[in-house]
Write a structure and sequence with these properties.
Blueprint lengths: L9 H5 L7 H8 L4 H8 L3 H7 L2 H15 L10 H6 L13 H11 L16 E4 L5 H9 L5 E4 L3 H4 L6 H8 L3 E4 L2 E4 H10 L8 E3 L2 H4 L1 H4 L15 H4 L9 E6 L4 E6 L5 E8 L2 E6 L9 E2 L6 E2 L4 H14 L4 E5 L4 E4 L4 E6 L4 E8 L5 H10 L8 E3 L2 E2 L6 H25 L1 H12 L4 H5 L10 H4 L11
Parallel strand pairs: 1-2
Antiparallel strand pairs: 2-13, 3-4, 5-6, 6-15, 7-14, 8-13, 8-15, 9-12, 9-14, 10-11, 16-17
Length: 466
């Protein structure tokens, strides 16, 4: 909105940078460190507006934490004030800019660009835990690949005072957890979660929480529907290394998980213990609007934040006949079938959940097929006890992931032959069927080959059979 600014504000205030549009100015400032941004904040009123952009200071805080090894902290309700250790100043009256205001507009629009009626439980299938047997779950939902909300499925766990904010802080407040790839003390993170004004808030999603809080592992037990995880056979063979399987999840309002498919051909369950969540689903045959895979299938290209996706694509998603959504609260258990796209947005300032990826007998063919055809897509597995795979896309890292995935396949098959040969035989038979209906009806897995971009395709139709 350059025309809305008085001539004596933007151009002289930015000097030579005034020829750039607002987005380019922010892109340039993203290379600046803390002292440089602080200097710009006192250079002029216009420069202060751009140099005070919260995402710039958030980047500075993340870099400082990574370089120093000191856990992140957050105070004064802004990243800038946290770094400079003083209350933030209001600079919004100095200059008009759609680009600078856009994050605030997304935040004010609500978690999905609209006000969600908490009484709207959504279109996802639901069943009361008291009425749902394991046999019915397997036949009606897991085998057919249908997302399900099991009401009361984790009611006993959710009733424990352990998950209350005060109790969790008293017991684990000074322990460090992984938040977006960075260390964050739980006490500092919960302060941030309830006070931040980020367009895309950080999210505590920690697969190694047992290292920081081994006591929590004693509270962790899958519901009866999900007890048969074939990856557990690796432990019976004396193998400590298996793909990451369990996470503790803590976040504030507007935080959550962007669109993704759970790794390694696995299904998942998620137990909501505190707060409310909004779940969004698309079947394997439908890529969510605004999302596309990278050529090698390892990454997704999508809007940076959930709020930006919602602003641009939520209405289109809701209009799609295959779109499914649901709200969950404390005590609800969510089943996410393998291959299903899903995204989750937290609706309350304090939400806690546990989640687990698992490979059941019904999903074994999917997992074995991925490990054979695309071992470079294996996720959450350390190459050695103290060496975890990175998420970078270098040739060396891809080769490393492929070697690790191939080794996992060999160890997994050995364990299956010894302990569950009948299950392995059924999965092998399924994989060997030439041009079988199952392959044509489900989302294909990328083959590791010379032209992955041509081989990574989605099936044209699906009956939710996996």
């Amino acid at each position: 909105m350059g025309d809305a600014n008085p001539p004596a504000v933007r151009a002289p205030g930015l000097g030579g940078m005034h020829v750039l549009n607002d987005a380019l100015v922010l892109e340039l400032l993203a290379w600046a460190d803390g002292p440089s941004l602080a200097a710009l904040c006192v250079a002029s009123g216009a420069a202060r507006c751009y140099a005070s952009f919260e995402e710039l200071w958030k980047g500075v805080a993340l870099e400082l934490s990574a370089a120093s090894g000191v856990p992140l902290r957050y105070s004064h309700s802004s990243w800038k004030a946290t770094i400079l250790e003083r209350e933030r100043c209001d600079v919004t009256r100095r200059l008009f800019s759609d680009v600078l205001y856009h994050p605030q507009r997304l935040i004010n629009a609500g978690p999905l660009g609209t006000s969600i009626d908490v009484r709207d439980r959504g279109s996802c299938a639901r069943a009361a835990a008291a009425d749902l047997t394991v046999e019915r779950f397997v036949a009606e939902f897991e085998t057919t690949g249908v997302p399900l909300i099991i009401e009361g499925g984790c009611a006993v766990d959710a009733a424990k005072p352990l998950w209350d904010r005060a109790e969790l802080l008293a017991r684990f407040g000074d322990r460090s957890f992984h938040v977006g790839g960075h260390a964050f003390d739980l006490r500092a993170f919960l302060t941030y979660a309830s006070a931040n004004n980020d367009e895309q808030p950080l999210y505590l999603f920690d697969s190694r929480f047992g290292e920081a809080a081994p006591e929590l592992l004693e509270e962790y037990e899958p519901a009866r529907y999900f007890g048969d995880d074939l990856f557990d056979l690796l432990a019976e063979e004396g193998e400590e290394r298996r793909p990451d399987k369990r996470w503790i999840i803590v976040g504030g309002a507007r935080s959550g998980s962007a669109w993704h498919v759970d790794p390694n051909g696995c299904s998942a369950w998620n137990a909501t213990l505190r707060g409310r969540k909004r779940w969004l689903f698309f079947p394997p045959s439908v890529t969510p609007p605004g999302v596309r895979r990278s050529a090698d299938g390892h990454d997704l290209v999508a809007p940076v934040s959930l709020a930006e996706w919602a602003h641009s694509f939520y209405a289109e998603a809701r209009a799609h006949p295959r779109f499914v959504e649901a709200s969950t609260g404390p005590g609800d258990l969510v089943f996410i079938p393998r291959g299903w796209w899903h995204s989750v947005v937290n609706l309350d300032d304090y939400t806690v959940a546990l989640t687990h990826n698992f490979c059941s007998p019904r999903g074994l063919a999917s997992t074995l097929g991925l490990l054979r055809r695309a071992p470079h897509l294996v996720a959450g597995l350390a190459a050695s006890k103290d060496d975890r795979l990175d998420e970078c896309d270098s040739v060396e890292e891809t080769a490393r992931r492929a070697a690790t995935g191939t080794a996992l396949h060999a160890r997994f098959v050995r364990a299956l032959k010894r302990h569950r040969p009948d299950v392995l035989a059924a999965a092998e038979a399924r994989l060997l069927r030439p041009n079988n209906l199952w392959d044509r009806m489900t989302a294909a897995v990328c083959d590791a080959g010379e032209a992955p971009a041509k081989k990574c395709k989605t099936a044209a139709f699906s009956f939710n059979f996996q």
